[in-house]
Amino acid sequence: MEYGRVIKSPLHDIALPLSGFHWEYNKGNFHHWRPLFLHFETYFNTYISCRKDLLLSDNIAEEELFPKHSVLHILRVMQIILENCHNKSSFSGLEHFRFLLASTDPEILIATLEALSALVKINPSKLHVSGKLISCSSITNHLLSLAQGWGSKEEGLGLCSCVVANERNQHEGLSLFPSVAENECDGTQYRLGSTLHFEFNNAASGRVDQTSEKSKSTDLNVIYIPDLHLQKEDDLVILRQCVDKFNVPMEHRFSLLTRIRYAHAFRSPRASRLYSRICILAFTVLVQSSDAHDELASFFANEPEYTNELIRLVRSEESVPANVRALAMLALGAQLAAYASSHERGRILSGSSIISGGGNRMVLLNVLQKAILSVSNPTDPSSPLFVDALLQFFLLHVLSSSSSGSAIRGSGMVPPLLPLLHDNDLSHIHLVCSAVKTLQKLMEYSSPSVSLFKDLGGVELLSQRLQTEVHRVIAEVDEINNAMVIGYSTKCEGDHLYSQKRLIKALLKALGSVTYSPANSTRSRNSHDSSLPSSLSLIFQNVNRFGGVIYFSAVTVLSEIIHKDPTCFPILDQSGLPDSFLTSVVTGILPSTKALICVPSGLGAICLNNKGLEAVKRASALRFLVDTFTTRKYLVAMNEGVVLLANAVEELLRHVSSLRSSGVDIIIEIINRLSSVGEAKCEASGKLDENTAMETDTEENVSEGHDLVSVADSTADGISDEQFVQLCIFHVMVLVHRTMENSETCRLFVEKGGIDNLMKLLLRPSITQSSEGMPIALHSTVVFKGFTHHHSASLARAFCSCLRDHLKKALSGFSSASGSFLLTPDAATDSGIFSSLFVIEFLLFLAASKDNRWISALLTEFGDSSKVVLEDIGRIQREVLWQISLLEDSKIEIDGESSAANYVQRLDPRINEADDQRFSSFRQHLDPLLRRRVSGWSIESQVSDLISIYRDLGRASTRPQRRGSDSYMISRSTSSSRPQSDVSPDASGVGRIDDDKQRSYYSSCRDMVRSLSYHISHLSMELGKAMLLSSRRENNPTTPFSAQSASGWYPLFSFHHVGSLEF
């Protein structure tokens, strides 16, 4: 479903495009669905929030028919999305749910509560992560009223008794000989449950000065109507009669309506059954709401036996339908999840029998065993629903840190779950998946469970089921692809395929846990003779059919097999498994973060064997990094996983020493390939222009183009070539930074000339002159700081080599300008002066380190073969200070920033205030001038933040060349020469835009020369301190010639520095 079609359709026809919605994605991000939810809010504001029957106003009658069909479709879609999205805390539609909870249609109530249950449901994988509970503050009172049902057990209206009475009444209505004794019991139940007894205080009826008991009693109003189920009027009519007769205030009307709805539900068994579900659902939502502490305390004070009532429902196999038993089981699981998720909630629920009672857990385990054995019973189609609820509960039990969770791990859960591994019914595949997940977590926590599982043949069952599902998926994908060619609808097959892939992923994780977990020190005796290697080979050979997530799981299992027992490699090699994996790497990895980050670990495992190492070298498997770091189709996957991939590559090169040299060669090749790309335009041919659809979570999709989440998240078509190259450079800087932490790898990189290649890459104008390149510059300082530890001399030599040519070019430009004022748009062409100055400033920024080894090496280099470089830096400082003094004397009005901001707004009106603040904050961290003014600023503390910031820039860059409102960010992204005007349809506006760009550019140049002066001054001070310190040492590491050169250079500008300018 494309939600654009839903948004474009008329509101009154919204049900039509929603009718076919189903979930077909791997995982969801709620932010992607926000436009659709905003559209739902528009619908609710138009058709729901203004209805008198939902507002419960004085005039309750509503003439317009309630749009039940459309609302049910909306709530169903909301439930599906909320069940599959992880970041639901930003949901903002609770006010509309408050109105819907006042509906007198039980189907609307159930759909609303099911959507709310999906919203507040605690993900088992995040059970112990803080901040999981979602607030329902505006509706907690409504939920409490609905959860209280017909009344308390002490009143004879316990939940179980009411449900059983309703079900018995339905069955007895079909019997020729109903039980008289049971009918009399049910008659008492009906009289109690169908009697409306409601008390409320009417504050408006009393006077402040009334203090007697008699006057106080007049404030209490009691509504008592027996046999409400016999009345033919609907709930709203009865409510209106009570409001008119007893003058019920607005704040009590919802509670009164709830009591009317429950009492009136006894009019039919169907209505009673629906309200039984409503009661349990309301409690399930309430117990997981983050701010319902008071309401829960009040609920359990009134009904302390509620948990036991739920357990009685679960155990009532014949008298209670499976769907109600499933809801009761989900309510028990919600208690357990809430108990483990919040200390405050745990205090309230600590007395619950499901938390503290060990006997109840064994009872439920017996119920699970019976339910699994009868899951294929055709007479009860709702049985799988009940089994699914039981499996969810026991998964929570295994994951729980409570004493109950610890006890259940050793209580024999393995035997009841094994029969599900034999169930090949496609409609039960979600049950098999849940059972496998539970077994996998059980194996991680319990060593006895591992042994029991293996003794019962569980490993063989998992391997056989994996083989079955792998063959199924391959065949089904081919069938779906053929059906799509002829235009046949494949929705049902697509649903099954998605479920089968989820099961394969769970099976792979379970195999890794049960056979190779830390709790199991020995491998399975028959693991290599089983079908597991052949199944893994099939996954590697058909990676496009399975996707990146399954590929990641398969590589993980392969790595664990070899790491646990390296002697098994010959057997695996004989089955062709290592070759299948290497082929999948060489032929091209899926553009998926998961697929990319697992490859180095798989290669490392194969390299543990000499034959495997030779196979990796022969296949040149490490060359996958070249495409990964330079190809457009991997851009989004790299933005997400570059740090993890760099860490994995570093670990591989550290442990496999024979791959270090080739690994360094590949890193240098990546750097050279990016350096060869032109500044203005990427090469027309080659992989940099490859426009392949990228994949994040689309590996689970049936067909490309159906996943609007991936389309919104991974389309890189809007990223310009230069933006793409900048992102690639940042990625390779992360790789270099991480891999150079190993001293041996760093040594090879330096010996092979890697520093010179890296310098060439970083001196691109888009990095030296653009604020968008400043994250790369800042990360580069971390990389070069690593080189200073052991390779300061090589770094200093490369630094001076790069600096020499640009110094000469800048000095030549200054000489030709013969003292002219260059920092104005009215000046003549700068002849490349500023482009060289930008590079010089950037290089000095990289060199701004206080490391003694680096300064000493730099001082030595200046005194050896780079004496002229040191002298030229002094001459540049003199020219720069002269330009700054002319600027100060001229008193030119600087309006470049405001002009540039106006220019940006005209170019891209979509830039909003939040983005401006984002980029403004970004500049404050990265501007060479401002970064030195921040106290306590350190490079290392910013690296992680920079990766996140630059990732955001990469995502934002899918929009056409958007930039912030800061003129500095506009101007520094221009070329070193004076910028040319854009072609505009309005000829009269071309001149103004060109003028704005020129002013913006020269405003950037003024900022740059101030920063350059500062960095030269900083360098002079550091060299001076180094000479002073070295002169005090007995063993002077600084040569006399270098000290003499520096001392001769220092007077060139020291007299200017004494009265340093304020900027």
Automatic annotation (TrEMBL):
It holds the Pfam family DUF913. One of its GO terms (cellular component) is cytoplasm. GO terms for molecular function: ubiquitin protein ligase activity. InterPro entries: ARM-like, ARM-type_fold, E3_Ub_ligase_DUF908, E3_Ub_ligase_DUF913, E3_ubiq-protein_ligase. GO terms for biological process: protein polyubiquitination; ubiquitin-dependent protein catabolic process. Coiled coil: none annotated. It comes from the Eukaryota. Residues 966-984 have a biased composition (Low complexity). Residues 435-767 form the DUF913 domain. Keywords: Transferase. Residues 70-153, 208-372 form the DUF908 domain. Residues 957-995 are annotated as: Disordered. PANTHER family: HECT DOMAIN UBIQUITIN-PROTEIN LIGASE, HECT-TYPE E3 UBIQUITIN TRANSFERASE. This is DUF913 domain-containing protein.
